[in-house]
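Module 6 notes. Inverse folding takes a fixed backbone as the condition and produces residue identities as the prediction. Think of it as a translation problem where the source language is geometry and the target language is the twenty amino acids. Below is one complete input and output pair. Work through it position by position during the lab.
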């Protein structure tokens, strides 16, 4: 296999790993956020902290 095809193969593998990583993280985040009780969340602008 030539150097060109080796580089192409490595780039494709890196791209596949990156896509799978971001898909998995997004799936985990959705699952995690599904357990949040949004009725208990307060308005962040009225959190009692001085943002300045």
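Target side of the pair, the amino acids:
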């Amino acid at each position: 296999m030539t150097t060109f095809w080796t580089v192409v193969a490595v780039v494709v593998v890196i791209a596949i790993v990156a896509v799978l990583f971001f898909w998995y993280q997004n799936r985990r985040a959705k699952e995690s956020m599904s357990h949040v009780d949004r009725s208990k969340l307060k308005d962040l602008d009225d959190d009692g902290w001085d943002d300045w």
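Reference fact for the lab report: The two ends are 59 Å apart (CA to CA).
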